[in-house]
């Protein structure tokens, strides 16, 4: 991998001198059953070149047919981004020769995207809100996937040969383009991350994309330029391509700001070009020069008829839109009565929906939070999984909670019960039975254990008798140990105090 | 049954239905004819002997079993080699596709198979249908059965010559600017360009998507109507295909009456640039229609003068993009140049070696016309002209039910005569191009032989979009009146072809 050789300024110094302007092109892969223009399955991870029809391979004589579901998805995304929806729009051919594009043109939209002129509010961690204007969201098809074999860089230049997988060719994409984002100052890297996170969340919430960045379902090209404070004209921009994790988006924007600042400080103009992001070195390297006059020879796609929408259809889709994620968060926090900090932790842990479902299944907001932020998050971290991926259902939590509240088991035992259920040993009740995990409720064995514990710690016993009731914890601990946790700690405490003739 | 091959498709179908003739006999007769004369004509790039006979045998078996068959079942057909077929090569007349076999059938081919029409083979054409003489084929020119030193028209010279030389009763062509009608005119056969969207383009190798249309080639108007009904209709694989049912075209051809119809003579498509013998035959046809009760009126289409220029911007623009896929990466020819074979160099070498001059000329033209800074002046203006031409037609069809003109300004020219003069070659399509620009249907039928050279003259009929039936209605009448004056079909006057294998 290429090492970073560019000079960079410290971020703080860069921010002192320059005003950053951002712009994003986010590509969202839709999760439609079939591709944008063919009946081939839209699926990830299959054997290369199996999800293809003659259309996807661009064989002689083939014609595209628009996927109606993809058009609906595009409209939903447009509506969720508060865009206007075109009454009539066209597909266009973007002509360029590259082996991942079977026809050597990409069918896209050019002059008239399906959605345009929108905006979304982006909330940063501290509650600051920036409004990002959306220029357009348009439909297009994904390219195939190239793997370059041999050579030092993994790129096509210098490779011994390249392999191409057309399974991805023709997968429906929505490209969301922002207007230039000005006035963000030092919050630029944060905003970059928050913007892409918001887009991801919106398309996931709409159900139109799997929105998994690690699979390339959401890919971000980040444009950065700097200008001296007070200057109206934008500086020359660079476009860092395919930054494919939220953290990388933040780092890439930060890095480019620092790099631009150093270049500008040295008196050299910024080269308008694409940049490649390298996760290992956390830096970018030069891609290809990109001018505004890149000539793709766009023209209207003559093999397709215009996409015509109508008011009734759009309003029907608008009415069916799910609650926007930001509004939903506000509503849920109010309903649950969590503090801002508690709620942010819940969101960051990715368990908001799980908590919502668990509350709906019949436990209090506090209990749901205790489970998802406590035991389940702990296990997820150990297993390197998302909490929701552990297989813990809301119903299971309700059952465990019922067992705890009825005194049948305690918190500690509930973890063993959870182990058993996840190991496939049956329902919580069955696991309690099979593993013999029920709290010891018969006083006989408890008294025996209490006597043992008192005898083992006579000095503590004396203190309690002397009125230091708070010392009882040590004896309770001893009893719990002796009963391997299967005692009801409350009952143990009562019995100890009775035994010693002290009022609790 | 030596005369089997001279039967019209309609007559042959009747003899097949009455079991007077078997499909295998008919198919074999055509295969024998191909064997005897195609060495001289070069209409076929591939002869599909085994499969054609197999299908014919299936038809005969089905018929003897009493199965219900399509009226054209067992009637053989030739397919222009621009239309993809499973199990046979498809070359588009280009070296770049030499040896390539399609893994899928074009929709029209599926329909031929469903009707159980034996496919005799694939016919020659100008490379990627770019040309008016079939001389731009990478596999040698096709010769005109009327005079082997002359061109059979283009791009569909192979289909027209095959039908004219009795090597096939029917053929499929494609028409982007006249590639069905102009070959029909110069070979004394019938050719129809249906309304744009009337026949699925799925599986027709695209030259200019907004202009291309598949259509029938035959020896009689009725035969074209029969074939048109087989191949027409909506196809979900082609977004531009019309949802209308194909219409009662055969009935229109049978009904054939013109009394009280208004026939519009297009003022701009006659006179200067048109051969005298062509105009004489054209006037005679007008007289015959008048005598049959039609009202002949003159209409003006002033914007047609821009049609050729606009066509030569739109067509190459779309072609430059449609032909980008031929790059040696996935199929067809791949040329690996000396030195370091980068992807750009492989693509470049493949296209340099695989495409002929006319194809390269149009790719360069189109690439230029679509370039930033030139797009509005060229492609944009051409699209405006297209709208003007559509308006001219709309106004003309206010005054006339059908329009009429010579199909081509001249009879067949000599091989090699215009090969080095692209503009002269392009002018041959001046009368056929407007229909493609407007998406309307057109039919060419034989109008007799020009006095000065004894070669066939074509008469073109044009109708409003979706009114293809009118072409058959008027065409059948004119054909009958003309054949009366000739004492039989025009092709009966064609010279015997000396078998040269």
Describe this structure in words.
Chain B: Belongs to the amidase family. GatA subfamily. Chain B: One of its GO terms (cellular component) is glutamyl-tRNA(Gln) amidotransferase complex. Helices cover 39% and strands 19% of the residues of chain A. Chain A is an alpha+beta fold and 504 residues long. Chain A folds into three domains: 305 residues, no CATH class; 113 residues, no CATH class; 58 residues, Arc Repressor Mutant, subunit A, CATH 1.10.10. In chain A, the strands form four sheets. A nine-stranded mixed beta sheet of chain A has the order 2-6-7-10-1-11-12-13-14. In chain A, helix 1 packs across helix 4 and helix 8 crosses helix 9. The longest helix of chain A is centred in the middle third of the chain and has 20 residues. The radius of gyration of chain A is 30 Å and the shape is elongated. Chain B contains 16 helices and eleven strands. In chain B, helix 9 links the parallel strand 7 and strand 8. The model of chain B has no long low-confidence stretch (mean pLDDT 96). Classes of the chains: A alpha+beta (504), B alpha/beta (501). At the A-B interface, loops of A face helix 10 and helix 11 of B.
Write the layout of secondary structure elements.
The complex is a heterodimer of chains A (about 500) and B (about 500).
Chain A: H1 11-17, E1 18-29, H2 68-80, E2 84-85, E3 88-89, E4 92-95, E5 105-108, E6 115-123, E7 129-141, E8 145-149, E9 161-165, E10 172-178, H3 188-206, E11 218-228, E12 238-243, H4 246-265, E13 273-278, E14 283-289, E15 299-300, E16 307-308, H5 311-320, H6 325-336, H7 340-348, H8 352-361, H9 365-383, H10 394-405, H11 411-422, H12 428-435, H13 443-456, H14 458-465, H15 472-482, H16 489-500
Chain B: H1 9-17, H2 23-41, E1 44-47, H3 49-64, E2 77-80, H4 107-114, E3 119-123, H5 157-164, E4 170-174, H6 181-187, E5 190-193, E6 214-218, H7 221-231, H8 249-255, E7 262-266, H9 276-291, E8 295-299, H10 307-322, H11 343-354, H12 357-369, H13 376-399, E9 402-406, H14 422-427, H15 433-438, E10 442-449, E11 456-462, H16 468-486
């Amino acid at each position: 991998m290429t090492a970073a050789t560019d000079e960079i300024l410290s971020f703080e110094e860069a921010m002192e001198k320059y005003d950053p302007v951002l712009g994003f092109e986010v590509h969202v892969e839709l999760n439609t059953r079939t591709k944008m223009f063919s009946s081939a399955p839209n699926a990830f991870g299959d054997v290369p070149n199996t999800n293809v029809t003659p259309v996807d391979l661009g064989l002689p004589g083939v014609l595209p047919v628009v996927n109606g579901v993809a058009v609906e998805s595009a409209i939903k995304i447009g509506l969720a981004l508060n865009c206007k929806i075109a009454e009539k729009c066209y597909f266009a051919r973007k002509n360029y020769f590259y082996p991942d594009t079977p026809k050597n043109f990409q069918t896209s939209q050019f002059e008239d995207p399906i959605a345009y002129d929108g905006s979304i509010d982006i909330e940063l961690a501290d509650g600051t809100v920036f409004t990002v204007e959306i220029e357009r969201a348009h439909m297009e098809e994904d390219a195939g996937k190239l793997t370059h074999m041999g050579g030092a860089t993994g790129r096509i230049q210098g490779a011994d040969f390249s392999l191409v997988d057309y399974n991805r060719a023709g997968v429906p994409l929505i490209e969301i383009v922002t207007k230039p984002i000005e006035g963000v100052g030092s919050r630029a890297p944060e905003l970059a991350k928050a913007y892409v996170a918001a887009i991801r969340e919106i398309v996931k919430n709409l159900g139109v994309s799997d929105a998994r960045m690690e699979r390339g379902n959401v890919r971000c090209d980040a444009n950065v330029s700097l200008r001296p404070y007070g200057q109206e004209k934008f500086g020359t921009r660079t476009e860092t391509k395919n930054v494919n994790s939220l953290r990388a988006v933040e780092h890439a924007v930060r890095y480019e700001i620092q790099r631009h600042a150093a270049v500008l400080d040295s008196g050299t103009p910024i080269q308008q070009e694409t940049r490649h992001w390298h996760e290992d070195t956390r830096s970018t390297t030069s891609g290809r020069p990109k001018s505004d006059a890149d000539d793709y020879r766009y023209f209207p796609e003559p093999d397709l008829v215009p996409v015509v929408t109508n008011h009734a259809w759009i309003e029907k889709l608008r009415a069916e839109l799910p609650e926007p994620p930001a509004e939903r968060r506000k509503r849920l926090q109010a309903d649950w009565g969590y503090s801002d900090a508690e709620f942010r932790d819940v969101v960051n842990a990715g368990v908001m929906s799980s908590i919502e479902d668990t509350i709906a299944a019949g436990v209090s907001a506090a209990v749901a939070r205790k489970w998802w932020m406590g035991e389940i998050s702990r296990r997820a971290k150990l297993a390197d999984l998302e909490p929701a991926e552990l297989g813990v259902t809301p119903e299971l939590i309700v059952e465990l909670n019922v067992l705890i509240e009825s005194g049948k088991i305690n918190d500690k035992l509930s973890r063993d019960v959870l182990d058993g259920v996840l190991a496939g040993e049956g329902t919580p009740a069955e696991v309690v039975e099979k593993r013999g995990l029920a709290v010891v409720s018969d006083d006989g064995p408890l008294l025996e254990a209490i006597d043992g514990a008192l005898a083992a710690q006579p000095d503590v016993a004396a203190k309690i008798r002397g009125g230091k009731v708070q010392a009882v914890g040590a004896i309770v601990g001893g009893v719990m140990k002796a009963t391997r946790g299967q005692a009801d700690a409350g009952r143990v405490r009562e019995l100890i105090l009775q035994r010693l003739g002290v009022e609790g | 049954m030596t005369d089997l091959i001279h039967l019209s498709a309609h007559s042959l179908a009747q003899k097949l239905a009455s079991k007077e003739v078997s499909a295998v006999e008919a198919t074999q007769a055509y295969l024998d004819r191909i064997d005897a004369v195609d060495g001289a004509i070069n209409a076929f790039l591939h002869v599909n002997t085994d499969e054609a006979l197999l299908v014919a045998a299936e038809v005969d078996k089905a018929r003897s079993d009493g199965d219900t068959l399509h009226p054209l079942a067992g009637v053989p057909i030739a397919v222009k080699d621009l239309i993809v077929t499973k199990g046979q090569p498809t070359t588009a007349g280009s070296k770049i596709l030499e040896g390539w076999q399609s893994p899928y059938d074009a929709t029209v081919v599926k329909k031929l198979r469903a009707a159980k029409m034996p496919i005799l083979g694939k016919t020659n054409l100008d490379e990627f249908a770019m040309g008016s003489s079939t001389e731009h084929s990478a596999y040698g020119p096709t010769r005109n059965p009327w005079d082997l030193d002359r061109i059979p028209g283009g791009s569909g010279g192979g289909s027209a010559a095959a039908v004219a030389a009795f090597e096939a009763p029917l053929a499929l062509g494609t028409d982007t600017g006249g590639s069905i009608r102009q070959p029909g005119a110069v070979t004394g056969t019938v050719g129809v360009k249906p309304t744009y969207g009337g026949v699925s383009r799925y599986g027709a190798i695209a030259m200019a998507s907004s202009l291309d249309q598949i259509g029938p080639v035959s020896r009689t108007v009725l035969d074209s109507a029969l074939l048109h009904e087989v191949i027409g209709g909506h196809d979900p694989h082609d977004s531009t295909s019309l949802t209308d049912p194909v219409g009662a075209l055969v009935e229109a051809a049978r009904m054939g009456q013109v009394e009280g119809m208004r026939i519009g003579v297009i003022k701009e498509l006659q006179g200067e640039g048109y051969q005298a013998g062509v105009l004489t035959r054209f006037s005679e046809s007008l007289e015959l229609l008048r005598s049959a009760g039609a009202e002949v009126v003159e209409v003006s289409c002033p914007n047609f003068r821009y049609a050729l220029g606009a066509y030569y911007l739109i067509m190459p623009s779309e072609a430059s993009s449609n032909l980008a896929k031929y790059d040696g990466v996935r199929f067809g020819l791949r040329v690996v140049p000396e030195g370091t074979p980068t992807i750009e160099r492989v693509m470049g070498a493949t296209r340099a070696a695989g495409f002929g001059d006319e194809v390269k000329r149009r790719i360069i033209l189109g690439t230029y016309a679509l370039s930033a800074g030139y797009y509005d002046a060229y492609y944009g203006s051409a699209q405006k002209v297209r709208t003007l031409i559509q308006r001219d037609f709309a106004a003309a069809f206010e005054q006339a039910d059908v329009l009429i003109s010579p199909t081509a300004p001249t009879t067949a020219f000599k091989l090699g005569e215009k090969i080095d003069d692209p503009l002269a070659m392009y002018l041959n399509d001046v009368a056929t191009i407007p229909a493609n620009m407007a998406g309307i249907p057109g039919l060419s039928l034989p109008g007799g032989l020009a006095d000065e050279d004894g070669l066939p003259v074509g008469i073109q009929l044009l109708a409003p979009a979706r009114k293809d039936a009118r072409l058959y209605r008027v065409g059948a009448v004119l054909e009958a009146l003309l054949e009366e004056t000739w004492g039989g079909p025009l092709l009966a006057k064609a010279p015997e072809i000396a078998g040269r294998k």
